[in-house]
Amino acid sequence: MKLTIIGFWGGYPKKDGASSGYLLEHNGFHIMIDFGSAVLSKLQNFLKPEKIDAVLLSHYHPDHIADIGVLQHARYIQGFLGKKPERLPVYGHRLDEQEFLKLTYKEVTKGVEYDPSLPLQVGPFKVTFLRTNHPAACFAMRFEADGKSIVYTADTSFKDELVDFSADCDLLICECNFYSGQDGKNAGHMNSIDAGTLAENAKSRQLLLTHLPHHGDIENLVNEAGQKYKGPITLAEYGKVINI
């Protein structure tokens, strides 16, 4: 599996950046995990919009779905240019019906409901879900293919169930919207100590900190998480590629 980080800022994109969006590839299949603000623009340095095979959404906050509309327009316009792509499945939960219905656009995209209680097969990936602690209905995701696993926490405060869900994963993509000493529980987010604790208790092979805050020195997040987790820790950055 090959992961390319497209966007990683929490809430909104920092200057010249993008909010949540991750390109995951395996055996020639391209899936986008979340599709936040400015993701479409940044993605095109790596993959054309018409080459995406599927999109999988954790929840419907704008920093995770803001560019779905412009993705729909991009693929629609490509059809007029003689490069009409196949209809794109956009997977989402149906706990917010109004937002789910927006995932379907003409013959360009099709909203596909996932049942978070059941595994989902998308291309070569087996995906399982865990509901997180967040103000909006949101689901963490575990991707498995050819004996390897990647866990994406999406947005959440720390919860014990995440430990078993993330157990022995090859890569933990963990949200880290707060620094040590800050309590993100009411906002539905983790701090650096939470992220390190989760990675250590789950015995994750490596930790990627993402959904980063706009204030402070984000390099400190690595040192803080390292107080709990003794494995390799990486800060998300645009264009970073991780091969599993």
Give a verbal description of the structure.
By secondary structure, this protein is α/β, with parallel strands linked by helices. The chain has seven helices and 14 strands. It has helices at residues 39-43, 62-65, 68-80, 97-101, 161-165, 192-202, 219-225, and strands at residues 2-7, 21-26, 29-35, 54-56, 88-92, 109-113, 120-122, 125-131, 139-145, 148-152, 171-175, 207-210, 233-235, 241-243. The strands form two sheets. Strands 6-5-4-3-2-1-14 form a seven-stranded mixed sheet. The protein has a seven-stranded mixed sheet with strand order 7-8-9-10-11-12-13. Helix 1 links the parallel strand 3 (29-35) and strand 4 (54-56). The protein is globular.
Q: Quick summary of this structure?
A:
By secondary structure, the chain is an alpha/beta fold.
Q: What structural keywords apply?
A:
7 helices, 244 residues, 7-stranded mixed beta sheet, alpha/beta, globular, 20% helix
Radius of gyration: 17 Å
Report strand order across the widest sheet.
6-5-4-3-2-1-14
Number of helical runs? 7
* CA-CA gap between termini: 5 Å
Could you describe the largest sheet, including whether it forms a barrel?
7 strands, mixed
Structural class: alpha/beta
Shape: globular
Secondary structure blueprint with pairings:
Layout lengths: L1 E6 L13 E6 L2 E7 L3 H5 L10 E3 L5 H4 L2 H13 L7 E5 L4 H5 L7 E5 L6 E3 L2 E7 L7 E7 L2 E5 L8 H5 L5 E5 L16 H11 L4 E4 L8 H7 L7 E3 L5 E3 L1
Parallel strand pairs: 3-4, 4-5, 5-6, 10-11, 11-12, 12-13
Antiparallel strand pairs: 1-2, 1-14, 2-3, 7-8, 8-9, 9-10
Helix pairs in contact: 6-7
